[in-house]
Amino acid sequence: GFKAPKRASGCDNQAGGVGNEAKAPVGNRGFFIEELGRKMKSTLKIAIIWFFLTLAIYALLLWSFPNVQLWAISYGYHIVLLAFPLALLAIKWESSQSLGFVKGRWRFGLIASLITIIITLAVYWLMNNRQFVFPTLSHQLISVVSWVAVAEELTLRGYLQPKLESRCGKWPGLVLTAILFSVLHLPKIFLRQASDPILLVVAFVLGIVFGFIRDKTNSIYYPMFCHVTVNLIAFFTSGS
């Protein structure tokens, strides 16, 4: 009987690369650009290098300019951090769907977000043992509750977590992403927030929760909403 031709896998394409190139017209620039793009779509290593390089520069700036307000340096750092996934989105190596810009399981997302926010509010209240400070609206507040959370979620849970889970497995990838989330907070905690190690534990636990919500909903909107709200809670309970 008639059998449909077998579709070549990625490994088959690599093994038969010479044959494919022979079929392509000489000087077909689009073909070679497509081949180059296919080979470079595995950008996880570059993303990890970008993450630690920008983090090192961020720490250096915080240490070198102690009199500059935190929000100013943090704002610039998160612009640079977010540049990587946005660049991939711009050149169409990633899609809005792959980064989590989908509705997903909205009921689960809303319920899990609400529970996370309530628990976080109680934990921060007990940790700080102080009243709400109600700071004046400023660039710092805008940065903390919006831009910083959006940039971190899109970079970590939007891009890195699915790639790490694909490479390492679901839970190892989720945990690794949570560890990176904690590491990201190292410079701010130890250079600007009185070196309180418990904040690293809080960041790790929140990273696990945000990652779990991302996996269950397949959406970046709900962990992003949680993160913005948690930052707002932290700001109003501690003023930083």
Tell me about this structure.
- It is built from eleven helices and no strands.
- The chain has 240 residues and is mainly α.
- The chain is globular.
- The model is unreliable at 7-26 (pLDDT under 50).
Kindly summarize this structure in a few lines.
This protein has 11 helices and no strands.
What would the keywords be for this entry?
single chain, 240 residues, mainly alpha, 11 helices
Distance N to C terminus:
71 Å
Molecular shape: globular
Structural class: mainly alpha
* Major sheet summary line: none
Mean pLDDT: 82
Strands, helices and their partners?
Blueprint: H1 10-15, H2 17-23, H3 29-40, H4 44-64, H5 70-90, H6 106-128, H7 139-168, H8 170-184, H9 186-192, H10 198-217, H11 221-238
